[in-house]
Amino acid sequence: MSAAALPAAGASSANASRGVLLMLLLPGLVALVITFLLPLIWLFRASFASSTMGAFSGGDWTVQSYSAVLFDPFYWRVAWNTLVLGFNVAIFAVILSYPIALFLVRTESRFRGVLTALAVAPLLTSSVVRTYGWMVILGDRGVINSTLQSLSLTGGVIRLTNNSFGATVALIEILMPYAILAMLSGFGRLNPQLEEAAAMLGANRVKVFTRIILPLSAPGVLTAALLVFVLAISSFVTPRLMGGGRVFVLGTEVFNEATVTLNWPLAAALSVMLLILFSSIILLYQRALRALET
Amino acid sequence: MTTSMENGNSRNAVSRGLLRAGATVAGLLALLGVAQAQDASTKGTVNIVGFSGVFADNYQKFIIEPFKAKHPGIEVTYQQSKNSAETLALLTLQRADPKIDIALIDVAVAIKASKDGIFAKLDPAKVKVLDEMPAWARLDGDKAIAFSQDNLAILYNTDTVKQPPTSWNDLADPKYKGKIAAKLGDTRGVILLPILDKLAGADYKQSIDPALGLLKKIAPNVSTWEPAPDCYAVIQSGEVDLSICWNGRAQYLHDTQGGKIGIAAPKEGSIGQTNTIGLVENSKNAAAAQLFINYALGTEAQAAFAEKSFYGPVNTKVNLPDAVAARIYGSKEAQAAQMSLDWNFVAEKYSAWIQRINREVIALN
Predict the structure, then answer these.
(1) Residue B85 C-alpha, separation from nearest chain A C-alpha, in angstroms
(2) Is the pTM of this model over 0.90?
(3) Which ranges in chain B are annotated with CATH 3.40.190.10?
């Protein structure tokens, strides 16, 4: 369509192009509905089924799974554990990733591309493999414990894994590449000229950092924290393998209810609650982001 | 004269007897022929879904192959499933139009599935071997039949443990502090509770509190409740000294991996993880499938499978060689103390017991 034809065709053409646009969007929308929306609806429906049996045959509606969760202090503790794990992982992953991301954004090295690729390269291996790596490092007979013992620094074995400490450490490392990626894309407003200007006006390096760099990078930091938090509270493999069965979080409970005790409606209800938790966190995040940007 | 007459008579009698015997034999042979012809005339495909890995290999070799040799008209397919929950999901999905005829599935899941109408009642006229099965094995009105029992045992690392444990009580010995792997949030825990109850002189049908009390004494020794990748590998890697796990697979690993895994069958006896076989409701090959079930539960298949997989047989007519029995159940003392559970009762309690283990023992340790 040439530029000259546009005004002449007028409103009907605008409608037609909107139709074309819709048609173009349609395959994607259909795919989204099938792969994303339908399973969610199914999950939601299953959470209201009665839990007499693993198999979900449909039919009845009951809130028994929800009341079983809400009136059971154990699940409140599990939810609390999950949030604590998520916060710890998000905070440490962001703190550790921030300097890396900042360096990658500002470096003028010709190896910048390679370095960036290296920083996110761990994503190329399965998190299960990396979890096993951490089990080797933190295990009772692992690298750290055997080093400490051969140096006679500790009397016995220090329990570094099979508890929430191990799960937190492994999750921080596993999720750091996501934090770095999120910050790299969120640091677009950082501008070296602003820092030079601040320096010329007499700000020292600390002041430049706290008054210029930090506020400008805040949206990226917030996005990274949110991403890591969401991935951490929905994680299942790492808490299960590193936690030695002692770390009870929503992800592991959903797995247990679905595959061990075969209470699928309860597993579905727990998943819906995890989703509600996600949505409220994302809402809070958007509020915070808007506050930062205005 | 008389003698010759007698002789003649007796000779006649002998030959008549021989004739009669011959006729009987011929008749029997003919009958057998008919029976075989009937068996052979059953055609079709039997589709089985069951456990994966070594189990599948052994099942294929020692049950399916001999069955096919006897029934050339019947094709048998075996689909591997990761676990019983996955099998149940598959059967549930296919409920309207089952592609599977026979499911091999863990007993607790089988009872749940059966109550939900997944399995059909077996016909005692077609599965004659049902007579040879003990009452506890015929579950939910012959809808699922127990066919093997894999005992819970204490595995140990033969390099680090020079004096193998002999009793379940040894698990609480302080010398194993931080040296035990115990995945108990599943069937393993559900089986260990009745065993510990017996040690405490209690009955699992009354209360599992005594068992949980004992388990709390074992808990400080436990390094991991979630051994990874599994309860056998952590022994082989030397990560722990003891592991509470299944006998059959451990015996196999003992034989194939240089004997690093030792198996201790505690003297107080044990209980087997029980696997069941069931005919899927609305199976399109029900006749052939029941023929297969009849074979799989028979003494020949049961004995062969027990010898190769170290899973205890269920058919009461099976006599195991002493050496095999010792590797399945342990010493004579342990064999005498072997228990079986009322699975209909235990299936009801299954999730509640796991929940109590998780909350009262694991979450606090």
Answers:
(1) 6
(2) no
(3) 42-149+273-325, 150-272+329-362
